[in-house]
Amino acid sequence: MVLVPLVVAIPLVAAAALTAMGQFLGRRVDDLTGIAAAVATTVVSTMLLLRSLDHDLVYWFGGWRPRHGIALGIAFDVEPLSAGIAALAGALMTASFVFAWRYFDEVGTLFHVLMLVFLAAMNGFALSGDLFNMFVFFELMSVCAFALVGYAIEQRAPLQGAINFAVTNTVGALLLLFGIALVYGRTGALNLAQIGRALDGRPPDGLLVVAFALLLTGFLVKAGAVPFHFWLSDAYAAAPIPVCVVLSGVMSDLGLHAVARIYWPSFSGVFAADAGSLRAILVGSGVLTALVGGTMAFFQRDLKRLLAFVTIGHVGIFLAGIGLLTARALAGTTLYVLADGFVKGGLFLAVGILLRRARDGDELRLRGQGGVAPMAGVAFLLGGLGLAGLPPFGTFPGSALIIRSAGDVGYGWLPPLLAAASILTAGTVLRAGARIFLGLGDTDDPSLSHEPPAAEEEPAHVPGRVSPPLLFGPALALMVVGLGLAFTPGLAGRATQWAQRFEDRPAHTAELLRGVAPRPAGTPAFHPGAAPYVYGAISTVGAVGFAFFGLYRRRLPALLRRVPGRLTAGPAAQLKALHSGVVGDYVAWLTFGAAALGGLLALTVR
Amino acid sequence: MSRGVRSGLFLVSAAGLTALLLWAVADLPDFGHYRGPYGKVLNSVAVGERHTTNVVAAVVFDYRGVDTMGEEFILFASVMGVALLLRNPHRERRQVPVRIQSDAVRLAGIGFAAGLLVLGLYVVAHGYLTPGGGFQGGVVLASAFVLVYLAGDYHAYRSMSPTPAIDVLGATGAGGYTVVGIVSLLLGSAFLHNFGPLGTTGKLASGGSIPFLNVASALEVSAAFVLLFSEFLDELVVRPKARSE
User: Fold this and answer.
1) How many CB pairs lie under 8 A apart between chains A and B?
2) Looking at chain B, which residue has its C-alpha nearest residue A188?
3) ipTM
4) Whole-prediction pTM
5) SS3 call for A333
6) What angle do CA A269, A273, A278 make, to 5 degrees?
7) In chain B, alpha helices (H)
8) Number of independent structural domains in chain A
9) Going by DSSP bridges, is the β-strand pair B91-93/A57-60 parallel, antiparallel, or unpaired?
């Protein structure tokens, strides 16, 4: 139990110590402190994961246990799914620090300080069981991330990306805060389980519908779901690679995890009768996000922006998974998030290696230039296959759980759409990898985004001798962990059991507020059956095919090329034009999304 | 999107959102009819349990002390972020603003600065007895430094607030709060669990470990505001050399 607060305390103390002392010590002290603190935090998170396998670890800060069932203080509620995401955050942060050792030529203590505080914030956000405390860590994540995105101040794009990120996310945070105030005004409670109990016994009314919509909006802005996603591609395309790894690998997914974390303990009771309409709304916006992200990824030539849209596409898949509102789908989504986080992290590091070795991050200009960093090519290939969900690696167990769960609740149409989304994202990554490392495809493709990506990237200084293992080591390590995670014995069944615990509101409330340990549950065995393998094979083969389509599209016979080309050109141009980079547009869309979400809930909730 | 389309989209959506918010607010309990248990319970137990006459301080530094730790680091990270974004290795000095010549302004300024300093220390020290505390007192303390700049000059302000030293103070405040929590752990209790003697309610020597947390946040907040002011002032006084804008 004593370990719980350490996931936040270790990085914070390290950050403060670095601020006080780092200015008097050398750069390597910063690097070592960062790595040591990130490793220690990862170890602690992993231990928490292992210790919470059978029951939640409920940690009351200040020792303020609930009195007569009323929570006085703030609790961290550690269960395996959330602890797993915290461990992912720590692992990605470790890889980023190792990579940054050789990646930056010039880097100040401030980078390490902000990264460490960012890690503490993500851990706190993942584990907190208190609505306002979640908001505090949400804001702490935001301020760190805003500044880190703008790290390369000499260039325009990072500052623009950071501003778009800061403005949209601050509006999102404001709506989130408004939602929290409404919930507190109704229930007089901030503890998630306590809120759920206070809402018992009355049907939902206008206040609850709007409050829930506002909370959803705040978290979906952070996650980057359509139409709240516009900031994400600007910010991730401009952030330094070590920051991208963490943003794309875990921060986006934390926003979605928060949706599950507030829904099950607090709102699943009061909205029980409306679960069907809520499911339709969440899955619908998930599918939309997945297809928009995947399509936009296809049109990118700037590798970082391409991966940013891949991130959006997968956020959509996760939103659909969480939105199914079943234990199996929640378990599947979390496993998917973990494997996918490592894979996306590895892909960003591979792009970082290219930026460092070839001084460029543009797919077309880099055609056939991949020879300078063959290991990055290996990472690209593995990453593309990992994103496609090649059975039985990486994301396969997660997607298998989601596929089966969709069938359980009568959403049989969902798996083909999700497969289509992963064909788009994985196929695009494979296309870029094949073009760069194998020299395949055309040298030019006018349908890709026209804007010339920044010629100089952040390590724009004299190319010093770079020790390759420190660059490709972390990238390959992340790939191996991400793809290998699937081989943990019995993982899918265990995760389903954890998710059932997560979603069992009465038992969870009793455990939190009264200290009643839940009855030990058996582990349901999970046999994926044939369908997930079929989908996995289809999306893998489809991704490879789509990659070749992207490479040699212009050599298709005229008949095959012209008619579909003419039909899709208009909508594609409009979709691209929507991603304008103008922050006013983004805020208008955000407002639209919040109103639409609230309106849809108001119309469907009885 | 063109300007018109954007405005149209925003206005229609904002109207919808406003309608939703009004619908929600209408369902809130009436003003002054707070219903929830949380505030009531805390109000009734805080003085007895924490020996602090300012219940807000008991909530902020103990019952919800970990929120405050997060908030302190929000301020800390914001200032570090500003320093990161405003850093510029290639700087040259510009003309430093003229020194204020009026003796009356300088005398009044110094008088106010001294007064503010004392007031700030008072607000910090009595944070758990009367309204106030580390956050509020910290801001008052920082404004005493700003007065030195206003009434004196840039050099006087800068020599009073050397950035490395202020960095150390701020980090000590932010880290110190966390370290107090870790001390509780080392003593075998929960993170941020009170370990000092509670003392006599209403006296300065009361509240257990709250005074430590209070001083830690005062350090962090005052240092943060001084650093922030220095950063923005440097933008004014010290211009980047070759910025192509």
Assistant:
1) 233
2) B36
3) 0.93
4) 0.95
5) helix
6) 90
7) 3-26, 37-50, 55-58, 65-86, 103-125, 134-151, 154-160, 163-186, 210-237
8) 1
9) unpaired
